[in-house]
Queue: 2 jobs
Job 1
Amino acid sequence: MKPLSYARPRTQAEAAALVRRSPDAVFIAGGTNLTDLMKLDVVTPDLLVDVQDLDLTELTHHEWGTVVGAGVTNAGLAGDIGIRRRYPLVSEAILAGASGQIRNAASIAGNLLQRTRCGYFQDVTKPCNKRSPGSGCPAIAGAHRELGVLGTSEHCVATHPSDMAVALAALDAVVRVRRATGSVSALTLDELYRLPGDRPDRDTTLEPGDLVTAVELPAPTGAPSRYRKVRDRTSFAFALVSVAAMLKVEDGVAVDVRLAYGGVAPRPWRARTAEAALLGERPTDSLITQALQAEFATARPLPDNAFKINLAASLTRAVVRDLAPAQKAGR
Amino acid sequence: MTSTNQAVTRLDGPDKVTGRARYAVEYGANDVAYAWPVQATCARGRLDRAETDAALAVPGVLDVLTHENVLRLHADGEISPAHMGALPDLLLLQSKDLVFRGQLVAAVIAETPEAAREGAAAVVVVTEAEHARLELTVGDDEAIVPDITNDLSPGHVARGDADRDFADAPVRLDTTYSTAANFAMPMEPHAAMATWDGDRLTVHASDQGPPWTAMTLAGLLGLPPSNVEVVAEYVGGGFGSKAAPRPPIMLAVLAARLVGRPVKVALNRQQSTSLTTYRGPSRQRIRIGAGTDGRISSVIHETTGQTSRLTTYADQTVSATRLMYRAEHCRTTTNVLPLDVPTPAWVRAPGEAPGMFALESAMDELAVQLGMDPIELRVLNEPETDPESGLPFTSRNLVSCLRIGAERFGWSDRRPEPGATSDGRWRLGMGVAAATYPHYLFPSTATARVDSAHRYTVRIGAADIGTGARTALHQIAADALKVPMSDVRIELGRASHGSAPFAGGSMGTASWGAAIESACRELRRRISAGGGIPDEGLEAGAETLEVMTPSNFSRHAYGAHFAAVRVDRDTGEVQVDRMLGVFATGRIINPLTAKSQAVGAMIMGMGMALMEAAEPDTRFGGFVTQDLAGYHVPAHADVRDIDAMFLTEEDPNLGPIAGRGVGEIGIVGTAAAITNAIHNATGIRIKDLPVRAENLLLRVAVKAGER
């Protein structure tokens, strides 16, 4: 393996400066994904800038919402009583992912910024446009059962593997970023993540030295919510399809509906088209099916992952049934 | 009070959980170096050269092992007959032909593993790649019917005229199945440390059979067998893949020879996918001809598997079919297609596990077609003697396994019509499958010593790969010596302790136990003959050639698997609520470790059924699946209520120990019990393993006739 240096700065400015100094410098928090990628030679940093002394572990609840520091662990967030009361969706999503040991180490920012688990991305002896731009994407004609159908391109069909980010997308979370220059930005998840297009090597809009400092959740809406994940085994497996759903029904019609999907796209996929189709309507099975058809109208299914479209629709119908049992009459 | 038949907790447990037990590369050595493989990235071609200058310039790198400086091996040396299939993969760097992706093309040896790895990345391998054939297909012109399969039975076996009988049968079933490639992937990856002292070699290896491995290494290295010691005191699982020496062991040996220092090799998961064998995928077709009363008159079982360019390896996928049911006419055919892929070999009941998935699924299909209970169909077709050989069974008791299991599992609660039982969003179902595994015995040696303080030491070359064999053998020794276990010390896992078969084929405890029992009895005889123990102690050895005498019986273990599953009507997800295995395996030495082994094997069967798939890379070669994040085995959350029980059997014709192995029968038939239960829950017949949610999606609800 390549020799590397390790730094543990005390200030965000110092940390940003360190990362900007070398193109091969990276931030490290829990390291649960980064060190795996280093072992595989997928990422070969010359400098690891540890963020643990940067005071990023705030977790505070306010009337207007909640602030989650970027360095809070996944386990810490999932177990927080305030999160469990106000945003059970977040806890459910986190606990649906990884293992206890990984959740104890992994940070919120690291979770958001983890890389795809595509088998070609992780094998440096094979082509991959995300890892080695221009080398090609063998997944499209190869092993792609677990890969994406929405937001993909002819250059890359990778999925974003996070469960937590799917819940955050449904909750309209905002990611606070300290720019390398020192300014502060607030990004929605759709602004944070970019779609691959012809540059699948760039997962996000962040520039070198940009530091995720926190995630802000707006005040809870009170809408019943549910995270459900379909996977190949009961724990410690990435989603084939997952859904983070929130649904509030009044007089039989949906007055608040949020749907986000994992396992289908290069980013947590907020299904705004489907939401629009359901809002103000009775969420019947047939309407959900139509709404999902509209959402997946732009999908680029491949032979072995086309099932994800049906699975997403079926899963959504099931979750809506759970969230709005009173809708039975409407079916 | 005897020590056998007692539930003794495994004696090495504390050493293992506290880290005192040492595994292959945990042994220290002065001046040890580390080797890291450089692997081919083409699936077929020819090695031109390996450029090593950059690697040699990496600080800490000692040397690079290449085809130019490697020790020439004696390919025709005398090796263990059991290792013939493993031999070609052991001839590291002896040829420039590249025959699979991941093949070793060089190795870097350095002061540290990190430097070796850095050096390996700097080796420039120049190859001429050729078009590779990577996809297993059925009916290919290049497929061959091998003379013998892995259990030495021929590739083509027929009794009667099965094809004609089937054509005329009143009830006919013609169905196909497939199983995915499976990795062994033991917890402890393949690893070895080799130390040369002149012409003497010591290898600390993660290995299922030190004596045979030593014999094979000696043959290939041109050394007298007594010059090679192989030590495997503790092994973190093997699942068949370590029953022969594999490339990592030979790499350590050759690298140590090159640099004149001890060398350690420890593979990672990625390297393990191509250098340690795997269970090959299977494509099977079964035809069953029966009367309207359910009596089977003909069975035809054909399978197609893959092998590498190095050797013709064929699992005994169809062997169990020849003896399971009373069918006057039977034909089994094994086809093997050579491809540019890593060599498949033994993994967890090779052959019987995938083959019995097919046969026992077909039996369930036939039961549905006939409108019969699947247990009654099997009982109806129970043979009185081995239908293949005509020999009497030593004991069979399959019917008892089925009946007792049905009673215990609550089979009478099962509703035969698919989709009849539900629990909210879940469709519930129960399934059954039968199991069999041959009873193998191999000659073994053992020694027993006693010192003047009446302390006993029993030695055998065998390895305990985590099954509890060390404890069971200790129990056997104590009983044979008629002393408490605390007076006996047992030493395992060294080739120099004498020849003993590998831990595999479910033959370990019976084969080794016979030798230990014999040695211990002989020692007792000498003690009483001499009227006591002299100051220098006494020793007795035993060699059990006699157990190899062909028996006039058909010797197999039998069992029945029951599974209760639930299938999510919305997502196709499957959960296994309960499994019960009932086994007829003769005498049980240690009910606790035997049950653990059976339950463990059943969990492996669950993995085979529901999740384990080594996905071949049909473009680049090798496998796309490269690690345990992608190669799913059951997690704790998947394992709910699993129980195993053994029938009380006294069978004097099984050999001295009177026990059949419990290692592999637990994985045979398990997958079929699960997929048969899925059929009962949903009406969907899963014919391709592993089961995928998408294969059950939507059709579940439609079949169930709701919504």
Job 2
Amino acid sequence: MLRSPTVDAVMAQERAASFTKRSIKSSAKLAGLRLALSMLDLTTLEGKDSPEKARALCRKGLHPFERDEAMLGERLPSVAAICVYPALVAACREILAGTGVNIASVATGFPSGQYPLSVRLDDVRKAVGDGADEIDMVINRGAFLAGRYDEIAQEIREVKRACRRPDGVFAHLKVILETGELETLDNVRRASDIAIRAMAEVDAEAGIDAPGTPDFIKTSTGKVQPAATMPVTLVMLEAIRDWYLETGRLVGMKPAGGIRTAKQALHYLVMVKETMNLDVPGFEHVAGNPWLTPHYFRFGASTLCNDILRQIAWLKTGRYQAGYDFSEA
Amino acid sequence: MAKPANGTTTIASPPAAEFASGWTYAPAPESVKVQIKPRYTHFINGVWTRATGETFPTLNPATEQTLCEISQATGGDVDKAVAAAGAAQPKWAALAPGERAKYLFRLARRIQERARELSVLETMDSGKPIKESRDVDIPLVAAHFFYHAGWADKLAYAFPGRTPRPVGVCGQIIPWNFPLLMAAWKLAPALACGNCVVLKPAETTPLTALRLAEIIEECDFPPGVVNVITGDGRTGATLASHPGVHKVAFTGSTEVGKKIAAATAGSGKRLTLELGGKSPHIIFEDASLDQAIEGIIAGIYFNQGEVCCAGSRLFVQESILDDVTSRLRRRLSTLRVGDPLDKNTDVGAVNSRAQLDTIRNYLRLGADEGATLHECGTAPLPAKGFWCRPSFFTGVQPSHTIAREEIFGPVLSVLSFRTPDEAVARANNTPYGLAAGVWTDKGGKIFDIARKLKAGVVWCNTYNKFDPASPFGGYKESGFGREGGLHGLRAYVDF
């Protein structure tokens, strides 16, 4: 059985809190906010979602602030991806095909995952077939808490294989641990290690060498409280860091749920900067820290977007805009 | 949509140019400005003495600029201060305990209200990062006064069946590493127990003690209850041996502590000493390593390592020695050294030129004796000021000077061990015994090791945790007597 390092919860919480003490000002703040915007997986995961809602979200993601050039004198970045239910992938594709903004689809019986494996795998194949670039799967928490770790790993491998398109290229997989249900940081670390290894095994089967497919581990569905927290994200980043140091493979990180303010997003970026200082070759443009790019770090959020825009507008104009000055999606 | 091979996706927005250096934090200077007079005098019997006689400058160690001139107390000044305390003593002791508590509560609240000002002043005078003075020093100062204010009218319950009486006039001599916090540790229990005090802050960091005297004045303490006199070691020596002083409390070096012990011997003076340390961390292979590293970093680089209980010896189980060393190196590279008034600074300036010279001497000695030095970062340090990069030595043997003597700087010695018994033997193999840290995920092992360590404080899976309710003090050459908690009160009462 996999031996994961233990985590001392008290000190991990203290370390996570220390990142919130950094004071991010002026130029650093502006750069951090632009980066956070480009790292967004702009998300809607409601039972009432419709194709029209998905299309509106895609437009918002492509051009988050329509008056940016007029008001701020710059074109702000698009978000990284739009995250929707599988039924809405086709609608997103109408708008996003060829734009560089990815389509992320939740799958595998999101958010509970309490369906037969065959159903979950069909869910993945359908979403990939409809054009999803990224698949956000949920792990089987019941199996995890019952100690059936091999079963978890096996299911992740199956899902990852189902992410392979006919052309042989993999849709990127994000494994949602649903840390709010795992409860302890020891469990978070173990689940992270299981997911990271399982994904790498399928890459190895397919002959993909390091750094590997940029797959992710992700904290939460957003349907369970608590969702993303700083200590949980720290522990997951440490698992990703240790895996890189051991194998040279790069895995992405996506905290999701509960990150609503620009300030919170900056705290997470501080954590990324100060935890993932690994001098990775090929990433000199970000001082060797791949997790300071949208390729390896994402925020799963919806309301965060407009708060980032509001703060950017304040930094550039010295005035706070009203909430209604920013379009809803 | 065009997709390159596995490995990358095309994402519309490349990161901004600011990220080429890894997202550099913009300067975040503390904006509060404090008033500093050009010259300070002594606070004796509720008034500030006339500005006459010898003075010396107090510097900002980060800029080497003179902040102001400080008066050197003469024998006459010490006499006056001790006499004022002696005169105030009977009335202060006779005051209803609840009334004494009111003064202390008022002082604690006023400290909280003026916390930012005190933090900035502390940082300017001592070189410690504003992050620490703001989040650790000053909150703890207020906490100590609040805590002891609560004891003032409950002393009979602290010592059941006995009648606690004040000791009398207390001569209190404090160090430069936590100037205001040490003042609080000394003043709060003394005042709560009904004693009057002559306090002498360190000559390089007198400003916050003087500001505290202003706050005490503002709080309308009876004249003579607290007297603050400034000066160098000569003033301290005169105060410690003054016949009118009934109790001496000293925090500082073991060398000076021994002199004070000799000077007070046979005089009937009560004495407590809180002296140096060479505190060990023991980290077992079953520890939660990332969190242990955090504790070790906090243990040795907090306040530039100028901490009596700094965890300056790290004993690592041999099986994880390389792993721990590389984690330590990686973590060290994220520490930000520089302007103490910048809110993002982790390690500030060393307190004085003399202390910097001492630290540098040990760095040289360590290398000469064959240990390997690992320094943090290469970013240039400011041209002016007393700076020392956080560093650690590997390949240290228990016989090395850097493993035996207190450096009082941001320098860690990494040693190894193989079995728990060896770890305990090596950790206890020191003339000091102030604090220790144990790191393991195994509960049984924690209690076993903690019990065997000869140290006044043993922190388990954490380090540098302070609370007014928790007694602090040492074994062996780290001194005697306790400060804080019930135990700390004992030094300030007679039966």
